[in-house]
Amino acid sequence: MAELKLNIELHTKYWKRCLKSVLPTGYSSNDSSRMTLGFFILSALDVLDQHKKLLSEKERADIRDWILRCQHPSGGFCGSTNHRFPDEYYVDVGQGKELMDPANLAATYFAILALTYVGDLSQVRRRDCLKWLQTLQRDDGSFGELVTTNGTIEGGRDMRYCYIATAIRWMLVGDQISKEELKDDIDVDKLVEHLRSGQTYDGGISESSQHESHAGYTYCAIASLQFLGRLPDPSKISYSDSLTSPNLINVPDIVHWLVSRQVGYHAEDHDGETVSQKRPGPSEQLSLDQLSLQDSECVGINGRCNKPVDTCYVFWVGASLDIVGRSNLIDRNPIRRFLLEETQHQIGGFGQFPGKPPDIYHSYLALAILAIWKEPGLKSFDPALCVSAEQREKINAQRSIALVPTRTYWKHGYSFSIKEDDPNFEKAMAESEDAPDLAGDTSTFSQAVKT
Amino acid sequence: MGRYEGNPVWDDVVPIPQEEGEGALAQIAYTDEYVEAMGYLRAVMAAKEHSPRVLDLTEHVISLNAAHYTVWLYRASTILALDIPIDKELEWMNEVALENQKNYQIWTHRQTLIDHIFPTLSSDPAAAQAFADAESAFMAEMFEEDAKNYHVWGHRQYIVRKFNLFDSDAELKSIEALLHEDVRNNSAWSHRFFLVFSNPAYTTAGSRATEHDPKIPDAMIDRELAFAQAAAHEAPQNQSAWEYIRGVLRKGGRELATLEGFAGEFVRIPEGGEEDIRSSHALDFLADAWSEKGELDKADMALRLLGEKYDRIRKNYWDWKRGLLRGAKV
Ligand SMILES: [Zn+2]
């Protein structure tokens, strides 16, 4: 059998097309999540180590401007320019700030990530964004996707929002800035309680408590716990945990559920029908057909029990196992074969399942899991933030920049803030005037410059 | 001339164009129809106009992009502002939902409107019952397309909670009917678990799906076990039924070993002879039951059989469990 290889050149071509040409009209139903698609495109080219070669400085600046154009005046980002009104519409005419089309949680996450490929986080309105993030949390700890002018939190109860909220908070160093400067943070304990209550009787995690367990939501809950530093220590798992511990997120049960998502795949019995839509014949009782008695050349992954396999679930399941430190519990070769032989497309990219044309979402997640599994030609990958490890490092460095202490100096009766690592810091502090008497006239201070 | 431009009904509205600028990511080949409708939507939203023509416009926009997250909110506020009868909107939504199986905004929209009429509905038990029945009928129609549609099952939970259908015979029967159709429908199993173990009449409020709830009557645990055991007999290799059994045992605070005999019906391991295994899940179940009883050698043998012969696809996992078991032996 020929050796399987990821065709880097072909995938680069696919992603270059996504970057440089206009997407077909069929993508119109994704118009509200163009920021998500934009992130996938930039990040895929990064994982393929191509994006620096493909974008000129001018193009990077233009993309940066486009992303920032989607920043909402009240904090957060919009899903695309479709949702962003011209500036004059947001002006406060005496009834409070006008929200128009409110910022969207998913868009905000992907916009912040996308910015880090073409610039940095200095133009994200960090404090507005973190304050806005707090308004999205419900009393039960969960998050909505947007909040309307009258304060209603909209969007279903959905683990994805919890994941995104914790990732944004991590990137913007919300845990520290919120406490020190905003005097308020999201309610982490309630959120953790909500994440834990999502674990269902079969060990997987569902959209929220009591629904059916689902690989996407399982990933979201595990990754959120990692961002919050609340994942149980993987080295302390014992056999009896799975039989006795109901109070923490039960890792052995999650692992059992995750590895159960592997399904032997045989090209001939995939006719687009779900496995379970075929009624079991009377002989099924006695037959051992459904047992995995032989090694499968190809193994696919489903997202729920008894559902058909799908490319994206290779990521949701594989990345979850990686985060809990158990990547070695699945046999990666037949799964890799499934991706490379069955869902990789001849024009580049990956389809949802064999025979489907490639789409941006499945193409990205297939690359992502192959990168997690150290596919030659791809950068190593961070499973929780869903970007290359190098990019996570870059973002991490930008986080600490935000943490450099800011000091205040005075000039001509105004206050200015300056970071301690600013090259002008020493000079500015040395030349600073004494702070004016705060008990006196305060009108000067209301004009104080704040950066 | 478009659908709106030059149309006397829309004469007074100046559309707000999309400011795309340079460097747009994921640019889409919008149709002229789409661009025009969005421009008018932005204009009516800016003017905060809630009128019958806005209903037409939002319907049009939804037909072009059902995942537009704010058009749904704007439509809901328009319906409430105009006091439009909700049943008309539900009828329309039914069609849209059938055409957009993957869309989730429509379900939030539906629930916003149901929340709005609920206070009136609940004062008239017969009307409330009729409403819940109509919702069930619609969901049955959705299930004909896809009996595992996650959003529809989420809505079903919402309806059960809202109209307190936990004790409804019809609700339990309809789940049984779906499982009769397809005993592997894990969504239906999951809903059954919710129905039985979140029933406020006899469960502890806030009890997690993974923990023992002492308030649940023994008879209920017995009934659920019998149901799932029968299903496991029907299709021994159906993981849904086995997971359900484990879940029920945990809810009831019972040990796995209480069903050792039942699981043993699928697993015969005669001394020295050839074993006869009809379900890998039964073997997995027995491994845990034996480990629970401290019969670690037997548990280890079951895990070995799984990895080497009966569930080879998960060999690494079964080996890992054997390692954990050895940890327990020390
Ligand atoms: Zn998928």
> Which fold name fills CATH's third level, the topology of the domain at 56-186 in chain A?
Glycosyltransferase
Q: Biggest β-sheet of chain A: count, sense, barrel?
A: 2 strands, antiparallel
Element-level helix/strand string of chain B:
HHHHHHHHHHHHEEHHH
**How much helix is in the residues of chain A?**
40-55%
Read across the widest sheet of chain B, the strand sequence of neighbours is 1-2
Overall 3D shape of chain B: elongated
Q: Label the overall shape of chain A.
A: globular
Lateral arrangement of strands in the main beta sheet of chain A: 1-2
Tell me what portion of residues of chain A adopts beta-strand conformation.
Answer: 5-15%
| Most extensive interface, chain pair and sizes | A-B, 108 and 90 residues
Ligand types? zinc ion
Q: What's the β-strand tally of chain B? A: 2
Overall average pLDDT of chain A: 86
Distance between the termini of chain B: 82 Å
| Unreliable runs of chain A | 270-287, 439-451
CATH class of the domain at 56-186 in chain A: Mainly Alpha
Describe the structure.
The complex is a heterodimer of chains A (451) and B (330). Chain A is mostly helical and 451 residues long. Among the domains of chain A are: 56-186, Alpha/alpha barrel (Glycosyltransferase); 406-450, no CATH class. Chain A has helices spanning 8-20, 34-47, 51-54, 57-69, 105-118, 126-135, 159-171, 174-182, 188-197, 215-227, 241-244, 251-259, 311-323, 332-343, 360-372, 389-403, 425-431, 443-446, and strands at 146-147, 153-154, 262-264, 299-301, 381-382, 387-388, 406-411, 414-419. Chain A is globular. The termini of chain A are far apart. Chain A has a two-stranded antiparallel ribbon with strand order 1-2. In chain A, strands 3-4 form a two-stranded antiparallel ribbon. In chain A, strand 5 (381-382) and strand 6 (387-388) form a beta hairpin. Helix content of chain A is 42%, strand content 6%. Chain B is elongated and about 90 Å long. Chain B starts with 31 loop residues before the first helix and ends with a helix. Among the domains of chain B are: 1-84; 267-330, no CATH class. Chain B has 15 helices and two strands. Chain B has helices at residues 32-46, 52-64, 69-82, 86-99, 105-122, 125-145, 150-162, 169-181, 186-197, 218-234, 239-251, 260-264, 280-293, 296-310, 315-329, and strands spanning 267-268, 276-277. Chain B has 330 residues and is mainly alpha-helical. At the A-B interface, helix 2, helix 4, helix 12 and strand 3 of A face helix 1, helix 3, helix 7, helix 9 and helix 11 of B. Bound molecules: zinc ion. Zinc ion (ZN) binds next to helix 13 of chain A. Chain A: Residues 441-451 have a biased composition (Polar residues).
